[in-house]
Amino acid sequence: MSPKDKNPKTLSEAITQLDQLASQKKSRIGSSSLNISIENELKAIQKSIAELQPHLQNLQGEIAQSAEELLEETMEQLKTKINQGKKNMTELGRSVEEKIQKNPWWALGLIGLIALLIGFLIGKGTDHRKTPSS
Measured between alpha carbons, how far is 73 from 69 in angstroms, rounded to an integer? Predict the structure, then answer.
């Protein structure tokens, strides 16, 4: 018997037809209630996102401001250290210049000693021994 027949001829056909119709209705009701449930969950999620959005924007602004302040502070510290380094190098240059002017022979001796050490280190890598020719 096809489901389109309106009048079943036997009791078993009527029961079968009722079962089929009940299954169809159940699946329609189940899927529509599932859709309603999903729609309700989706609306709840969208509402939560809408409520959180201003807080996230505030947090983003605070993070950006903190990062900017930290960057400015770090740049100031870096500038201070660079200026301090420049002053130290200038003072060191003046000190060395004064010592050389006061005692130029000491500076020449030191330069000679350094040149001797460099020459020794360079010469150490070569073999100066002569080998007898055959």
Answer: 6
Can you give 22-69 as a three-state secondary structure string? HHHHHHHHHHHHHHHHHHHHHHHHHHHHHHHHHHHHHHHHHHHHHHHH
- Total tally of structural domains belonging to the chain: 1
What's the pLDDT tens digit per position in 27-48? Answer: 666 666 667 777 888 888 888 8
Looking at the domain assignment, is residue 130 inside a domain?
no
Assess if residue 29 is contained within a domain: yes
pTM value? 0.42
Inter-CA distances, 109 with 25, 28, 35, 114, Å: 109, 104, 95, 9
Distance CA 88, CA 84 (A): 6
Asked whether residue 15 is assigned to any structural domain, the reply reads: yes
Q: For residue 54, give its domain range.
A: 11-91
Within a domain: 74:
yes
Half-sphere exposure for 63 (CA within 13 Å, toward CB):
6
